[in-house]
Design a protein that fits this description.
heterodimer, A: 449 residues, alpha+beta, Peroxisomal Thiolase, Chain A, domain 1, 2 domains, 5-stranded antiparallel beta sheet, 4-stranded mixed beta sheet, 25% helix, B: alpha/beta, 9-stranded mixed beta sheet, two-stranded antiparallel ribbon, 11 strands, 35% helix
C-alpha cells in the first residue's frame, strides 16, 4: 500500500454535518451576523451515498442549518458516486428553466469499508458545496453530457455498512477506463471543443494514475488533471468533483475551460468557462479547501478510527442513556438547527436558548429572533469531563460568550484537550450529538478557530 | 411578617449509617431513621399528626413514607427541590407547626442511589440543548473560572477534602471514615477537570428524620431540644448559562438564602456569631465558594482561610464537623436533614469525639442544581432562648 493518509470525519461528524460545514463556508456564514433569511436561494440539493437516512431528507435539515427560507425545494440525490454532478446538473437545469434563482448544491460522503480493506485505506471523508445562479457567475456552463451504463462494479446493498466492488481489472477496464473517455469524447464533440482547449480537469476516480489515464485516452494532456487529494484526503466519493473544483477555482484564470466529470453507473461531463467575475471569489472571505486542509489534525490511532466508525463494540458508560423526543425537537427546530436565540427589544440582552421572560429586564415576549450560528465567541469557562458518556473523552463542556452579547453552554469539538484555555477564540459548528429516540440527534458545538 | 425564630423546636432526630447500604431498601432506611427519631423524641408514631418526606428520585407521593411506617390516614406530602429537598421538607413542616395546624410533625428524607448500577446520579439528557452536562462537570465550570479569577489551584481544594475526611473519620455513621492526604487528593483519578475523584462527594444511600413541635410544647417531650432560628430558601432564575455577566465564582442563591435566614435569626456578623456550619460540599470547589457566599470571608480569600485552618474542627468556625457530603456521603433527599442531625447533636452536646465547646448557633446550607441554576436552603438552629 502506498504511503499517505486519508481524511477521517471526527466522531461527531457524518455526511450531513460535513455538507453543512461546506455549505456554511460557501454561503459566507462564517463571517458576521446574519439575522435574515437568505432570500435568493430557492433550492438546496444534498448529494451523498451515505446519508444518515434512507427515508427522511437530509436536505430539509440542512436548509435549517443554512437558515434558508421555508419555501425552498430540497432534494437528496443518492445511490451513485455520480450524485454530486447529478445534483449540479439538476440545479443548473432549475436555474436555466427559471424555477430557481440560486441553488445551493452540497455533496458529502463518509463511506464505510471493511476493516483492513483497500477501501478503508483509500476512502476519505469530505464535502463540497457550490452556489449556482444566473447572474455574476464565476464559471459559465458550456456543455453538459450524461450517459448511463449498467455494470455491477461497485455497490452497497441496503443494510450493508460497507461499499463492495468487483475485481479491479474488470472494473477499471470495462468500467471507469471505458466509460469516462466515452463520455468526455461525446461532451467535447457536443460542445465543439478540442481536447487541447481544456485547461483544467476535475473528476472522480479511484486514484490519480487511473484518473489521469482516463483523460489521456480522450486526448487531454494528463497534466491538466487537478490534484484530487487522493494520497492525503482519499477518495471522497460523491464529494470529490465538488471538492476538487472548489480547490481549482482558487487558482483558475478568466477564459480557462474546466472539464468536470464524474463516474458511477455511467458518467457525467460538464464543461465550464471561467468568467472575469472569478476575481470576486477572491475578494470575499471564504475559507475554501486550502483552509480545511491546513486545519486537519492527525488521528494516529487505528483503534480510535474504528471506534469512531462504530466498528468495535464499546462498554457502555454506567449512565442513563440520553432520550429524545421528536416532538420537542420539532418544536425547537429553529433553536436546535438554526441556532436561533432572541434579543430582548426592551433591554437589548441577547439570549440562548430563547427565553420568553427576559433574564435581564424580565420583559415578557419581547424577544426578537437572532441567529448565533455565524458568531464568534470566547471561552468563559470549561471542564474536561470524563464522566459523561462520550466516544472520544473527555467531553469538553464550555461556557462561551458570543461577540455582540449572549452566552451558550455547549460541547467543544475539534479540540486538543490540553490546549483548551479560558479566553480562547471559538466559532460554531453543526455536529451529531448522539443517537437517541431511535434517530440521530444533531446540534451545534463550539470549536477553536 | 412575623419572624419564624424560636417558634419551632426539633425534639428528636434520626439518621441511618450513610454508605453503600446493599442490605437495606429505601423502606428499611426510612424505618431505621424514623424509629431513631421517635425514640430520641420520646414519641410514638401514632402521635404524629402530619408528615413531610423528601426524595429526589427514590419514591413518589406521601405514600413513600406512610407505607413503610404504616402511618394511618394522616396528611403526608412528598417534597422535591433538587439536592435541597431534605431541608425544604423541614421548612414546609415548620410552617405548618408555626401556623398551629399541627403540634407534632415528622420530617423524613431519603435516597437509594446504589440500586441503580449507575455512576453518579440517575437521569439523562433529554435534549441536545445542554447535553453533556454532569454534576461534577457543572461544578468544574466554577472551579476553572475560580482558579482563573483568583490564581489558586487544586491544592486548596485538596485541603478541603482532607479536612472533611478527617472529620468523617470521627463519625461512625459516615460513608467514608478514613483520613486522606493532600497528595492522595491531588493524584486521584480525574472526573471532570479540575475535579478529581476526591473532590467529589460519593454516591450514597441513606435516610434521616426529624420530629418537630411548637417551641412552647417542646419541654413536654424532652429537655434537650433545639429551635429553628431562621429558614431561608432562594430559588434562582437559572440564567447563569444564558447571562454573559454571570461569574461562576459566587452563587447568588446562597447569598440570598442566607440573607433571609440571617435576618430572621438576627445575625449581622456571621463569622463571629455562628458557632459551626454544615455546608453543601458536593464538590470541594462548592465548599470554597460557600465560605465566601455565606459571608464567612471576603470573595477570593477562601483559600487563605483554608490554609490557616479557619474551618477545621478546632478552627475559628468549624465547617462540616461530621465530614460533610464529601465524607458522610450524599443520599440526596436525606442530606439536608443529615446536616441538621449534626447541628442538633452539636447544640445538644452529643457529638462525641467531634463535640465543639458549647456551640450556640449552627448553620446548615443545602444546595441543589448547578452553578448558574440553583435552589438553596439555609437553616439556622440554636439552643433555645
Amino acid at each position: 500500500m502506498a504511503p499517505g493518509c486519508r481524511a477521517v470525519a471526527n466522531a461527531d461528524e457524518d455526511s450531513l454535518t460535513l455538507a453543512a460545514e461546506a455549505a456554511l463556508d460557501a454561503l459566507l456564514m462564517r463571517e458576521g451576523l446574519d439575522d435574515h433569511f437568505l432570500s435568493a436561494i430557492d433550492m438546496l440539493l444534498f448529494a451523498s451515498t451515505t446519508s444518515p437516512y434512507l427515508e427522511k431528507q437530509a436536505s430539509t435539515l440542512l436548509a435549517l442549518v443554512c437558515n434558508l427560507r421555508r419555501d425552498v425545494r430540497t432534494e437528496d440525490i443518492s445511490n451513485s458516486l455520480r450524485a454530486g454532478t447529478l445534483a449540479i446538473q439538476t440545479g443548473l437545469d432549475a436555474v436555466a428553466a427559471g424555477s430557481a434563482r440560486q441553488v445551493l448544491v452540497t455533496a458529502a460522503d463518509a463511506r464505510g469499508a471493511p476493516p483492513r480493506s483497500a477501501g478503508e485505506a483509500s476512502f476519505g471523508d469530505g464535502a463540497g458545496a457550490l452556489i449556482l445562479g444566473k447572474e455574476n457567475v464565476i464559471v459559465e456552463l458550456l456543455c453538459a453530457f450524461s450517459l448511463t451504463d449498467e455494470i455491477t462494479d461497485s455497490w452497497r446493498g441496503s443494510g450493508d455498512p460497507f461499499a463492495r466492488s468487483w475485481e479491479e481489472r474488470f472494473t477499471q477496464t470495462k468500467g471507469f477506463l471505458a466509460v469516462v473517455p466515452e463520455a468526455i469524447d461525446a461532451a467535447l464533440s457536443k460542445a465543439k471543443i478540442s481536447p487541447a482547449d481544456i485547461t483544467r480537469v476535475v473528476g472522480n476516480g479511484p486514484d490519480q494514475r487511473t484518473l489521469a489515464s482516463a483523460i489521456k485516452t480522450s486526448g487531454i494532456d494528463p497534466i491538466k488533471a487537478e490534484d484530487h487529494f487522493l494520497s492525503h484526503v482519499g477518495n471522497t466519493g460523491t464529494a470529490m468533483p465538488l471538492l476538487v473544483l472548489a480547490r481549482a477555482l482558487e487558482t483558475v484564470s478568466p477564459g480557462d475551460k474546466i472539464l468536470v466529470f464524474s463516474y458511477g453507473n455511467g458518467a457525467d461531463v460538464l464543461i465550464f468557462e471561467v468568467t472575469p467575475q472569478i476575481t470576486r471569489l477572491r475578494e470575499v472571505k471564504r475559507r475554501g479547501v486550502s483552509h480545511y486542509l491546513a486545519r486537519s489534525a492527525p488521528l494516529n490511532s487505528y483503534e480510535k478510527f474504528i471506534r469512531f466508525r462504530g466498528l468495535i463494540p464499546a462498554e457502555p458508560a454506567r449512565r442513563d442513556p440520553p432520550t429524545a423526543s421528536a416532538v420537542q425537537i420539532w418544536r425547537d427546530r429553529d433553536t436546535i438547527y438554526r441556532l436561533c436565540g432572541v434579543r430582548c427589544q426592551s433591554c437589548g440582552a441577547h439570549q440562548f436558548p430563547p427565553q420568553r421572560v427576559c433574564y435581564k429586564c424580565r420583559a415578557l415576549d419581547q424577544g426578537e429572533r437572532i441567529r448565533f450560528a455565524n458568531r464568534k465567541a470566547k471561552l468563559f469557562t470549561y471542564t474536561l469531563d470524563y464522566l459523561n458518556a462520550d466516544i472520544d473523552p473527555p467531553t469538553v463542556m464550555s461556557v462561551i460568550n458570543f461577540e455582540g452579547g449572549g452566552r451558550m453552554y455547549c460541547m467543544m469539538t475539534d479540540r486538543d484537550p490540553e490546549r483548551v484555555a479560558i479566553g480562547m477564540p471559538l466559532e460554531m459548528t453543526f455536529r451529531k450529538i448522539y443517537e437517541a429516540g431511535g434517530f440521530r440527534n444533531y446540534f451545534w458545538k463550539c470549536r477553536p478557530i | 411578617m412575623r419572624s419564624l425564630a424560636d417558634r419551632v423546636a426539633i425534639i428528636g432526630m434520626g439518621c441511618t449509617k450513610f454508605g453503600e447500604n446493599w442490605d437495606s431498601s429505601s423502606d428499611d432506611m426510612i424505618v431505621d431513621a424514623c424509629m431513631e427519631a421517635f425514640a430520641d423524641a420520646g414519641v410514638r408514631p401514632e402521635q404524629i399528626e402530619a408528615a413531610w418526606v423528601g426524595t429526589l428520585t427514590s419514591g413518589v407521593s406521601g405514600q413513600t413514607l406512610s407505607r413503610p411506617l404504616k402511618l394511618q390516614y394522616i396528611p403526608v406530602t412528598r417534597v422535591e427541590n433538587m439536592c435541597a429537598t431534605g431541608q425544604d421538607a423541614l421548612r414546609n413542616a415548620a410552617f405548618a407547626v408555626a401556623a398551629g395546624a399541627y403540634d407534632l410533625v415528622l420530617v423524613a428524607g431519603f435516597e437509594k442511589l446504589k440500586d441503580s448500577g449507575l455512576t453518579g446520579l440517575p437521569g439523562s439528557a433529554s435534549s441536545v440543548i445542554g447535553a453533556g452536562n454532569t454534576a461534577p462537570g457543572g461544578f468544574a465550570l466554577a472551579a476553572n473560572r475560580y482558579f482563573h479569577e483568583y490564581g489558586i489551584g487544586k491544592e486548596t481544594l485538596a485541603k478541603i477534602a482532607v479536612k472533611n475526611h478527617s472529620n468523617g473519620a470521627l463519625n461512625p455513621k459516615a460513608h467514608f471514615q478514613k483520613e486522606i492526604t493532600v497528595e492522595q487528593a491531588m493524584r486521584a483519578p480525574m472526573i471532570a477537570y479540575p475535579l478529581g475523584l476526591l473532590d467529589c462527594c460519593p454516591t450514597t444511600d441513606g435516610a434521616a428524620a426529624a420530629i418537630i413541635t411548637r417551641r412552647e410544647l417542646a419541654e413536654k417531650y424532652t429537655d434537650r431540644f433545639v429551635t429553628i432560628k431562621g429558614l431561608g430558601l432562594a430559588v434562582g432564575p437559572g440564567s447563569g448559562r444564558v447571562d454573559e455577566n454571570y461569574s461562576f465564582t459566587s452563587f447568588p442563591e446562597t447569598q440570598m438564602a442566607c440573607r433571609q435566614a440571617y435576618e430572621q435569626a438576627g445575625i449581622t456578623e456571621p463569622r463571629r456569631q455562628i458557632s459551626m456550619a454544615e455546608v453543601h460540599d458536593c464538590f470541594t470547589i462548592t465548599e470554597l465558594i460557600i465560605y465566601e457566599d455565606l459571608g464567612f470571608c471576603a470573595p477570593g480569600t477562601g483559600a487563605q482561610e483554608v490554609d490557616s485552618g479557619t474551618f477545621s474542627l478546632r478552627g475559628e468556625l468549624p465547617v462540616n464537623t461530621d465530614g460533610g457530603l464529601k465524607s458522610f456521603g450524599h443520599p440526596i433527599g436525606a442530606s439536608g436533614l443529615r446536616m441538621l442531625y449534626e447541628c442538633y447533636h452539636q447544640l445538644t452536646c452529643r457529638a462525641g469525639r467531634r463535640q465543639l465547646p458549647n456551640p450556640k448557633l449552627a448553620l446548615a446550607h443545602n444546595l441543589g442544581g448547578n452553578p448558574g441554576s440553583f435552589t438553596c436552603s439555609v437553616v439556622i438552629l440554636g439552643t433555645p432562648e
